[in-house]
Automatic annotation (TrEMBL):
Identification of the protein by name: Acetyl-coenzyme A carboxylase carboxyl transferase subunit beta
Zinc finger (C4-type): 29-51
BP term (GO), one: malonyl-CoA biosynthetic process
Cofactor(s) of this protein: Zn(2+)
Organism: Hymenobacter daecheongensis DSM 21074
Annotated Zn(2+) binding sites: C29, C32, C48, C51
SUPFAM superfamilies recorded: ClpP/crotonase (SSF52096)
Keyword Thylakoid: no
Quaternary structure note: Acetyl-CoA carboxylase is a heterohexamer composed of biotin carboxyl carrier protein (AccB), biotin carboxylase (AccC) and two subunits each of ACCase subunit alpha (AccA) and ACCase subunit beta (AccD).
Cofactor mode of binding and number, as noted: Binds 1 zinc ion per subunit.
Leader sequence segment: none
Length: 296
């Protein structure tokens, strides 16, 4: 006879008596494995208390963090994509869109809004990575272009928060056209003397890096964000050399002169407010619209 004998077979606790750990109560940092409560994690704006790892967050969280009282007016909320190429991969594109819309509650991979940040008007367009990898199709490009137009017409600074895998393959050429369209609108914004701040978050790659994300009057990033054009494997195979450590991290990109500064999410709102205050006179009093000063 063995030294251990199971008296009863299998697990005998009835399902209704099992104690479940409630979902979403704890957060474990993927970098340093520190565990915190979700409430604490949220209080720190989804950054790790120990290693300062910045968790990926969505437009809903950024709008909540940035806009005063979490209040804003969403722009072009109803815009959705067609299927110009009748594209099919493992699913037909319209089916993929419908399933993603249902799962995420979003209409596409970017949301734009007008609100106030410490009392200053600001138009923000923010990408959502959970919507087909934050990929840029015609709706993403169009919503960004319209948000830029709105900012230009109302003479309000524009903030773009990028988080994207690049162009959306299901719209192929139509996706690539968005690079030119958004860049052209930004040039018009610049001519009107309206400030544009581009914030790159983890990850910002492909056609997004190659267009609007790198065209800010200020290009800023979150710590540790992956920022690049092509992926490291493709580059390594192309140049036939090993890549340096931390290649394509925000810190590496900053050191090589492509970013103005890296901002901790906990200081983001205040730093943006300071930057907007500094830039504001240009937006309010562009030369052609400035009222004539009276001298007495
Ligand atoms: Zn951590």
């Amino acid at each position: 006879m063995s030294w251990f004998k199971r008296v009863e077979k299998g697990i005998v606790t009835p399902t209704e008596q099992k104690k479940e750990t409630p979902d979403g109560l704890w957060y474990k940092c993927p970098e340093c494995k520190t565990v915190a409560t979700m409430a604490e994690h949220k209080r720190l704006l989804y950054t790790c208390a120990k290693c300062n790892h910045h968790d990926r967050i969505d437009s809903a969280e950024y709008f909540e963090i940035l806009f005063d009282g979490g209040e804003f007016t969403e722009l072009d909320a109803a815009l959705t994509s067609g299927d110009p190429l009748r594209f099919v991969d493992t699913k037909a594109y319209p089916q993929r869109l419908a399933a993603t819309q249902k799962a995420t509650g979003l209409t596409d991979a970017v949301r734009s809004a007008h609100g106030q940040l410490h009392g200053q008007d600001l138009v923000v367009a923010c990408m959502d990575f959970k919507f087909i990898g934050g990929s840029m199709g015609s709706v993403v490009g169009e919503k960004i272009a319209r948000a830029i137009d709105y900012a230009r017409q109302h003479r309000i600074p524009f903030l773009m928060i990028s988080k994207s895998g690049g162009a959306r393959m299901m719209e192929a050429g139509y996706s690539l056209m968005q690079m030119a369209k958004t860049s052209a609108r930004l040039a018009m914004l610049s001519e009107a003397g309206i400030p544009y701040i581009s914030m790159l978050t983890d990850p910002t790659t492909g056609g997004v890096t190659a267009s609007f994300a790198m065209l800010g009057d200020f290009n800023i990033a979150e710590p540790g964000a992956l920022i690049g054009f092509a992926g490291p494997r493709v580059i390594k195979e192309t140049i036939g050399k090993d890549l340096p450590k931390d290649f394509q991290s925000a810190e590496f990109v900053l050191e090589h002169g492509f970013l103005d500064f890296i901002v901790d999410r906990k200081q983001l709102k205040q730093q943006l407010a300071d930057l907007l205050t500094m830039l504001q006179p240009a937006a309010i009093a562009a030369p052609e619209t400035a009222p004539a000063r009276r001298h007495q």
